[in-house]
Amino acid sequence: MYFRSLNSIKYKIIRFIESNYLINLLIYNNIRFFKFLLPHEKDFYGMLLLCKNNKDNIILDIGASLGISSLGFRQLGFRNIIYAFEPNFYLFNKHLKRLAKKNNNIFIKNIALGNSNSFKTLYMPYYKSKCIHYFCSFDKKYLINSIKITFPSILKNIIIKKKIIKCRRYDDLKLKGIPHFIKIDTEGYDEFVLKGLKKTINKYKPIFLVEYNKEYYNNVKKILKGYVPYFYDVAKNKMIKIPKLINKEKIARTTKSNYLSVRNIYFIPFNKKIN
User: Strand 159-168 relative to strand 112-113: parallel, antiparallel, unpaired?
Assistant: First the structure.
């Protein structure tokens, strides 16, 4: 109970940090000095009920950003091999290279994953010469809407730059190891990532943790039709099956009245036993 109370306070602090783009950039860009904030998503604790901690079962961190999720997995005690995918060249060179150098068995890939082997346009928002990297997206409309929801006061002063990015289907990469757990946070591109994972899904039935987006949730569910959606209840330390009608106050990317709302959905194979 004491641990859960501390966690409740911790994640309210994290949501406050994320409510200000300058504080967000300052803390998260230097997360190696603030490891007590890891994992930065409370939903990650659900992994302890579902995932095996061994090198034979690899973890995919798709949309790795600064490497904050991979560091969170390590903070939870997982020593699995991690493949971290991040198309943003700035984040890859400045943050992920350092992450891989200082952490064993984290392998980084400067590519996007999607449903085709091609090149895509990545849209990157800048405000006062600073890249707000956590909003970078292949979907310009999605990017603008995300900023509008989170930081409406700066939207009119945002400058959007473009970068051509290499995109690959995961199924074609032929990486070593069996994917056991896959985290996807690609700012509106999740369903395309999943389409490039079809062979992997059919063969290995990995567990997924996908950022919740109400616009694309049903599309993701259709692709993962052999899976059951759950969310992790931090207060009860258990997985809760998600009903067809979603509680918009409890499960949402952002909600002002609930600082502990669920932001990530677990998709678990229907025959998977949950602890």
Answer: parallel
